[in-house]
Amino acid sequence: MNKLLSVIVPTRNRQIYCIEAVKTILQDLDERCELVIQDNSSDDRLKKQVENLADDRIVYNYNARPLSFIDNFEEALDLSKGDFFIVLGDDDSTTKDTIRVVEWMQENSIDSVASTKVVDYIWPNTTIEKYKNGLLTFYSYNKDIQQVDALAQLKKLIKNGFLAYQMYNLPRTYHGIIRKSCMDDVKNISGRYFGGLTPDIYSTIALSCVVKKHYVIDYPFSIAGACPASATVNATVGGHSGKLEEAPHFKNRGSYNWEDTVPAYYSVETIWAESAIKALKCLNRDDLLDKFDMYKLYIYGILLNRNYILGLSINETLKLHSKLESNLFVHIFKLGLKLISTIASVLKKRILGKKKLNEAVQLGNVYSLGEAKKILNENLKGVVWK
User: Fold this and answer.
1) Residue 95 CB: number of other CB atoms within 10 A?
2) Would the pTM count as exceeding 0.85?
3) What's domain 3-231+360-379's architecture?
4) Which of 62, 103, 198, 289 has the most CB within a 10 Å radius?
């Protein structure tokens, strides 16, 4: 029998954080839901901890064979039986309104929902002073509900060089809620649920090509955690920049063909763009790539990684001229024009002033994910869904 909601948690070698996340997620799930844990750790310690919970809502699978990020997500989604699902990290959690959002989606035949509000919880981290006792950040909200044309937004993202894809309020499996049949459509077209190098942006691009009814809501329904071992924390010290062969995304991935239009160095920007292009090709939407502003990607890739790999990013970007079948001097000229327009755009924003953001609430001395969740739920007033 299908469940209403599957909360899916792929994990690897972060047992101490995962079991705490699992306990907090279970607080919000009723008998209509399941918590799917796909464990690819190097040992089965987590299995024993899960068994001790003795909870029938948990679906646990341990695969000792080392898997790539993509394959671990693939196995996790294969296990799920929910009509809807949400993928969370092993240091994340839900909120008291997660199921209410799913019920609203079911009643209104909605395929996908994303939240404009991100709740961040940095777990206590003794290596970074401002996070040593934990930090919870959330924003004011106005409960707006808006239907969004996902394909139209996707076209804007492509025109922006696939940069900052979270800003476009597109469908997403990671911290978004998706009707499972939409991912089945992706698999029917491409042969699998996930591809590329990173499952979150790949699925965002793929889903934007198939969902029919997508909404964004100004209300949080999940908590994005960042434990000391997380990629989010690693990125703050330049851990997401380097030579392409150093990218963890290639681990256990097998033979992989990097897209010729993306500079061959490791960064958030290049990994995202490469996986996004793969998704469009796998979904047979190569036509959308006509609007791809590759030179915007190139310039932002250099600027955003200048403190860590300036020489490498410039060198790999210049080398692209041969793959693009462009004269080197023409290639440099285009880069120069894009750099000038980028600087002009930044200066314009500074002169006009930044758009006022909703007020953020930051609370320190939040020592656990459970405590962070309790504080957040006390501040969420609940939504009357239309």
Assistant:
1) 22
2) yes
3) Alpha-Beta Complex (3.90)
4) 198
